[in-house]
Amino acid sequence: MGAFPTPLAAFGLVYAIMFVKGFPEEAIFNVMSYGAVGGSNTDSSQAISKAWKAACNSKTKSSTVLIPKRQTVMVKPILLSGPCRAKSITFMVKKNRDFPLMIKSFLEYYLSSGRCKLSQINGVIVAPTSPKEWAGTDKSLWLAFKGISRLSITGSGIGKIDGRGTGWWNQSCRDHPSLEGRTLIAPTATKIISCNDTNLSNLHFINSSQAHVLLMECRRTEIKNLVITAPESSPNTDGIHIHSSHNIIIKNTTIGTVIVMNR
Ligand SMILES: *[C@@H]1O[C@H](CO)[C@@H](O)[C@H](O)[C@H]1NC(C)=O
Ligand SMILES: *[C@@H]1O[C@H](CO)[C@@H](O)[C@H](O)[C@H]1NC(C)=O
Ligand SMILES: *[C@@H]1O[C@H](CO)[C@@H](O)[C@H](O)[C@H]1NC(C)=O
Ligand SMILES: *[C@@H]1O[C@H](CO)[C@@H](O)[C@H](O)[C@H]1NC(C)=O
Ligand SMILES: *[C@@H]1O[C@H](CO)[C@@H](O)[C@H](O)[C@H]1NC(C)=O
């Protein structure tokens, strides 16, 4: 070997520096590795909680809790909270990882030529269908994030958060004022409470029991590329609620949830 390091040695050196520094820049916490079971009727809440705790406590620049592609996980009401040791944390309802750019452009070329079809089903989170699952818990929550800084909740444009709210709609006091057991409060699909520097993007919110997204006491939030839908017949399924918050930007978001007055 001459006076100058070969590329391999240089690579080794960089690797050694990373190794000595002792912690990775980025870590992925796949919920399936924490015991999540695919399927819309098996509870994966514990696994999500565990993956969240591991991601939050990891001393990385960025930690990601991943609901991988082609997986549907059912989650009961859950509160994921900070503060986290990870400098930033991502909750990703998404395909595993993007193809490297070259392969991706080749694939796009190949696909656009119509010779092959790549299935693009991505991660989905679904709620329990029965309101009974909320017995003894806060009925205003389903997926809640609290006291976190630099949180990003994202999908790949196809990732879904499905509140499966029909059971709640069927007993809402608005539509069934004389029903025994009617409910005034139903869960908001995603609540983000006391969080600074949050991004919420590239997700499809469907059929929440009540409002789909709520921000409370948040600073600097960017919401973009959301599609929020619930049928015309659903009561009180608002798109996005914002309370006591500062610097909230909403871009490129389509909300199709309808309240029909004077029924
Ligand atoms: C958010 O910012 C406010 C004001 O700077 C601060 O009081 C609060 O502790 C921050 N919250 C988090 C979760 O970092
Ligand atoms: C949020 O998105 C902005 C770009 O729009 C980026 O600069 C910032 O780092 C993102 N924050 C998180 C927590 O991912
Ligand atoms: C809600 O009511 C509709 C119409 O009565 C019924 O078809 C549906 O099964 C009910 N859904 C649930 C989850 O109870
Ligand atoms: C949303 O709820 C309506 C009414 O129950 C149902 O027809 C529709 O299929 C649901 N949408 C999805 C994407 O599940
Ligand atoms: C706007 O959001 C939709 C839905 O997520 C997405 O398909 C589209 O690419 C977005 N447009 C831009 C300019 O980002």
Task: Provide a quick synopsis of the model.
The protein is 17% helix and 35% strand. The chain has 4 helices and 17 strands.
Question: Descriptors for this entry?
Answer:
binds 2-acetamido-2-deoxy-beta-D-glucopyranose, 12-stranded parallel sheet, 263 residues, Probable polygalacturonase At1g80170 isoform X3, 4 helices, secreted, Pectin_lyase_fold/virulence, glycosidase, alpha/beta
End-to-end span in angstroms? 84 Å
Shape label: globular
Number of helices: 4
Q: What amount of the residues lies in strands?
A: 35-45%
The ordered string of helix (H) and strand (E) elements is: HEEHEEEEHEEEEHEEEEEEE
Let me know the number of strands. 17
Low-confidence stretches: 1-5, 11-20, 95-105, 107-121
Hetero groups in this structure are: 2-acetamido-2-deoxy-beta-D-glucopyranose
Sheet with the most strands? Answer: 12 strands, parallel
The value of Rg in angstroms is 21 Å
| SSE class | alpha/beta
Helix percentage range: 10-25%
> Could you tell me the mean pLDDT?
83
